[in-house]
Specification:
There is one protein chain. By secondary structure, the chain is α/β, with parallel strands linked by helices. It folds into two domains: 1-75, no CATH class; 81-198, no CATH class. 51% of the residues lie in helices and 17% in strands. It is built from nine helices and seven strands, in the order ααααβαβααββαβαββ. The strands form three sheets. The chain has a three-stranded mixed sheet with strand order 3-4-5. Strand 1 (77-79), helix 5 and strand 2 form a beta-alpha-beta unit. Helix 1 (7-18) packs antiparallel against helix 2 (23-36). It starts with 6 loop residues before the first helix and ends with a strand.
Length: 198
């Protein structure tokens, strides 16, 4: 489940997925990570503590610190399918969104999510909406480097005028989902224009 193969880390991840509201469990995991040592573990422990504090008091300084320390977290959580919206909205309590990989697969995308994000934007950014909760869109974004991931999100949020939480995904999986969910089987781009290609 995570980039480490340590059985205790895998057990903590499984525990979180089964009960994402267990704040105390996340703080115990933070202590365990810190005891293990290493810069990436220490960063993850600090991230977990900051997010636990944000959850309690919505302190922007803790949110900013979580973003800063989250850049140094190296663990990776891979989900074989898109979870329900309640878990999607809690995943960033455990790991920064850029460190969570989601496979879209055969998951059904609610129309409300597709309505928020126009197809041309999904295709340009390889950005597949998977759920929506009010003005909060959840998506899977196919990008390789952290810098690209971080720089694309503000552009998408500004264009859509809503909060976006994007997780990482495989390019082939994301593009297949875009083709299937938006209903056009094949498109080509030319000189910045999107043209239906039969």
């Amino acid at each position: 489940m995570t980039s480490t193969t340590h059985p205790a880390a895998t057990a903590f991840a499984a525990r979180f997925l089964a009960n994402p509201d267990d704040r105390l469990g996340r703080l115990v995991f933070a202590d365990w990570l810190e005891e293990r040592g290493g810069d990436a573990n220490t960063a993850w422990a600090q991230y977990l503590r900051c997010m636990a504090q944000v959850e309690v008091d919505s302190d922007n300084s803790n949110a900013n610190e979580a973003i800063r320390t989250g850049r140094h977290v190296r663990a990776r959580l891979t989900l074989g399918r898109v979870p329900g919206t309640p878990l999607l909205s809690r995943l960033t309590l455990f790991l920064p969104a850029r460190r969570v990989w989601v496979r879209i697969g055969e998951t059904r995308t609610p129309q409300s999510a597709l309505d928020i994000c126009p197809e041309f934007l999904a295709r340009i950014y390889e950005f597949m909406p998977v759920a929506a909760e009010g003005h909060h869109l959840f998506a899977v974004l196919a990008v390789g480097r952290d810098e690209e991931f971080d720089s694309l999100l503000p552009d998408v949020e500004n264009f859509l005028s809503c909060r976006v939480t994007a997780f990482r995904g495989d390019s082939e999986d994301v593009n297949r989902a875009i083709d299937e969910r938006y209903g056009w089987n094949r498109r080509v781009t030319w000189d910045g224009m999107i043209v239906q290609a039969g």
